C-alpha cells in the first residue's frame, strides 16, 4: 500500500555503507561550531570601506558650501551657476549613500533602537533647540511645532521615514520605478502641504531607493580611470549649461519642496522635471563618486562625524543671515567669495572632528538601554566578536 503512494518507477535508494565509529565521530566534530576568533581593532577597522567615509565627508562639505553660497547668488551669475550645479547632485549623493548603508534594515529590535536614538531623538532635541535659538536671536513669536522641521532638519525626518520603509522596497520587484512614480505624483499634488516636509521626503525618495539597490560592484565600476577622466568634461558641460539656465530656470526645482502648480507651471511639467532632474543628478553624482578617493586619507575618519556637522552648521549659517554678515564690503568680490568658501569648508571639517563628536554624543548617540529590549541578533554578534 505504501509503495502505491509513489509514482511508478520509484525505488528506495539504498542506505549508505556503514562507517567506522572513529570516522563518524571525526565528521561530527568537524561540523561542530568553532569558537570565534578575535580580531584586533586595526583588523576590524580595515573592514570599513574608506570610500564611503570619504564620500560622506566630501558631501557634507558640499552641503555647507551650498548653504553658504545662497546669499552670494544675487550678485554673480557665475555663483548662481555653481549653486545650480551643486544642488543638482550634492543632496542626491548624500541620500544615495544613506540608502546604500540602509540595505540591511529589517526593523529588528536593535535596528529600531538605533533608528530612534540616532535619528528621532536628535531631531526632537535639535528642533526644540532651533526653535529657542530663533526666538532668542530673531523672532520671539516663532511657533513651536515638531511637524514643520526647521532649517535643514527635514533630512532627519526624511531619513527616519525612508529607513522605516526599507523592508517594503526590499520586497518589491521594481522598487525604483515605483519610487520615481511616487516622486512624480508628489509634484502634481500641491495639497500635500508642509507637514514633516513631505514634498521633499517624496521627491527625494528615488535616490534613497536607488542607494538600496546598489551593490559594491556598482561603485567599483566608477573607480575606473577612464570614468575619472570622462567626469571632467561632463562637469564642465554641466557648469556651462547651468550658466545658460540661470536666467531661464527657477532654482526652486532643485529644492524639491514645491509642487509644479506652486511654481506657476502646469502639473505635467512636474513629472517631466522629476525625470529630468533625476537623470542629471545621477550623471553628476556618478562623476562625483568617480573622483572620491578609494584609499584612506586625512579626512577619512571625519566621515563618521557628518551628522554632527549637518546639525551644528545650521547655527552659524543662520547667524550669518540674521546679522547680515554678507553685507560687509569685502564679501561682494571674487576674493570675498573664495574666502567665504574656505571658511565654510574649514567650519564643516572642524564640526566632523572626533572632539566635537564626543562632546555631542550624549544627544546624537544616546544609549537609552533602559527603554529597549535587547536584540538577540546584536547579542549573538557581540558574543562572536569575543
Automatic annotation (TrEMBL):
<dbReference type="InterPro" id="IPR002656">
    <property type="entry name" value="Acyl_transf_3_dom"/>
</dbReference>
<keyword id="KW-1133">Transmembrane helix</keyword>
<feature type="transmembrane region" description="Helical">
    <location>
        <begin position="84"/>
        <end position="103"/>
    </location>
</feature>
<keyword id="KW-0012">Acyltransferase</keyword>
<feature type="domain" description="Acyltransferase 3">
    <location>
        <begin position="50"/>
        <end position="353"/>
    </location>
</feature>
<keyword id="KW-0812">Transmembrane</keyword>
<dbReference type="GO" id="GO:0016747">
    <property type="term" value="F:acyltransferase activity, transferring groups other than amino-acyl groups"/>
</dbReference>
<feature type="transmembrane region" description="Helical">
    <location>
        <begin position="174"/>
        <end position="193"/>
    </location>
</feature>
<dbReference type="Pfam" id="PF01757">
    <property type="entry name" value="Acyl_transf_3"/>
</dbReference>
<keyword id="KW-0808">Transferase</keyword>
<feature type="transmembrane region" description="Helical">
    <location>
        <begin position="298"/>
        <end position="318"/>
    </location>
</feature>
<dbReference type="InterPro" id="IPR052734">
    <property type="entry name" value="Nod_factor_acetyltransferase"/>
</dbReference>
<feature type="compositionally biased region" description="Basic and acidic residues">
    <location>
        <begin position="21"/>
        <end position="33"/>
    </location>
</feature>
<feature type="transmembrane region" description="Helical">
    <location>
        <begin position="146"/>
        <end position="162"/>
    </location>
</feature>
<feature type="transmembrane region" description="Helical">
    <location>
        <begin position="115"/>
        <end position="134"/>
    </location>
</feature>
<keyword id="KW-0472">Membrane</keyword>
<feature type="region of interest" description="Disordered">
    <location>
        <begin position="1"/>
        <end position="48"/>
    </location>
</feature>
<feature type="transmembrane region" description="Helical">
    <location>
        <begin position="227"/>
        <end position="246"/>
    </location>
</feature>
<feature type="transmembrane region" description="Helical">
    <location>
        <begin position="338"/>
        <end position="356"/>
    </location>
</feature>
<protein>
    <submittedName>
        <fullName>Acyltransferase family protein</fullName>
    </submittedName>
</protein>
<feature type="transmembrane region" description="Helical">
    <location>
        <begin position="266"/>
        <end position="291"/>
    </location>
</feature>
